[in-house]
Amino acid sequence: SADKLLTPITIGKTTLANRMIMAPLTRSRASQPGDVPTEMNAIYYAQRASAGLIITEATQISRQGQGYSLTPGMYTDAQEAGWKQVVDAVHAKGGKMAMQLWHVGRISNRHLQENGAAPVAPSAIQAVKSTSFVILPDGTPTRAPCDAPRALETAELPGIVADYVAAAERAMRAGFDFVEIHSANGYLLQQFLATGSNKRTDQYGGKMENRARLLLEVIDAVAAKVGADKVGVRLSPNFVAHDIVDDESEAMAMYLAEEFNRAGVAYLHIAEPDWAGGQPLSETFRTDLRQQYRGVIMTCGGYDAQTAEARLATGTADAIAFGRPFISNPDLVARYQQGAALNTPDQATFYGGDEVGYTDYPIL
Ligand code: NAD
Fold first, then answer.
1. CA-closest residue to ligand 1 atom 15
2. Whose CA is nearest to atom 43 of ligand 1?
3. Which of 80, 86, 230, 331 has its CA 20 to 30 A from that of 178?
């Protein structure tokens, strides 16, 4: 049964119709050139508006923050206008929407960077076990290596914070209900958090408080502009992909939870590690995190209606985010409500392409 999942929940000052969240899902269908959201993207998201909350696909806050061709941005007027048409379509169907703000850090390639520059990272340590995806100038799609990054200067970090703030302000102007700071999955902010990728000797490296500093500065600066009750954060303790190495990720999450309380962050979104190959989160850790953090906790990672209900019943999460099931079932909420069968997602059409595998999944 899907009892608690279908009950409302309030995050900040916003009440969601249910606890089924559409997870942030990269679909690589922004229009070119310019990485601008389109009417097709608006149709896709509006089809899924019965989710309690839709979180956008990860959206780069700057050109420097892009790691894959065809992902949308939120740093130009055209991108903001494109996103406004998306949010308007979701709101028209009664949905709520968060924009996920993304800087990939070292998970990028020179082809994506201004003047072929090196990608940036906390330290000059290459992600050798990950790849970027690039459409070359001649149109050839290719899996490209993540190029060796250069370490960001201390004096550059306020500029990164400012890019997050500018994108968050654009998101508010476009009408989003929340912004979600992407500090998970091996991208820039997690590269700062993690012991393996952050070897800095300034106040942004070394002890835990220092490695957390950039994320907390981003949160404070964004919250000061848009209101903390509209700010969420995504973390992925124990995540293993994208070459992230961290022997302190659970302790860091506990420390951050306390800081999120101080900042008044509205929700904490956990990307669970197990389906990506990481060590599953222990029930002890989940319980400790629940006790530490006072806001709404949502969690994501291979749930179905049954396992989601079971998770909610433990009290360690307040809402559940679903990824692949929302790709293939625009009406996932109705299907869970009715106990109906689900469409199977087609992996071949996850990234790039047109309406096929995007807006054409059958609706009940
Ligand atoms: P993958 O290695 O198959 O592809 C990685 C990325 O390359 C895709 O996300 C997409 O941006 C791009 N890409 C690949 N094929 C493409 C195509 N034909 N056209 C356009 N773009 C294309 O990735 P995966 O196995 O799906 O994901 C690996 C891990 O990374 C997973 O854990 C996944 O959740 C995570 N991930 C996270 C984010 C994020 O946090 N924003 C984005 C992508 C993947």
1. 351
2. 26
3. 331
Percent of the chain's residues with pLDDT above 90: 96
337 lines ligand 1 (CB under 6 A): no
The sign of the dihedral angle between the CA atoms of 128, 133, 138, 140 is positive
312 with 27: CB under 8 angstroms?
no
Instruction: Kindly give the distance from the C-alpha atom of residue 298 to the centroid of ligand 1, in angstroms, as a whole number.
Output: 22
Minimal CA–CA distance to 163: which of 181, 148, 150? 181
User: What residues does each domain of the chain span?
Assistant: 4-107+150-349
* Fold (topology level) of 4-107+150-349: TIM Barrel (3.20.20)
Q: What are phi and psi for residue 308, nearest 5 degrees?
A: -65, -45
ipTM of the predicted assembly exceeds 0.85: yes
Residue 275: pLDDT over 80: no
- Is 225's pLDDT higher than 70? yes
Place of tokens 């968060």: 98
Residue identifier of the C-alpha nearest atom 2 of ligand 1 = 131
Is 164 considered catalytic here?
A: no
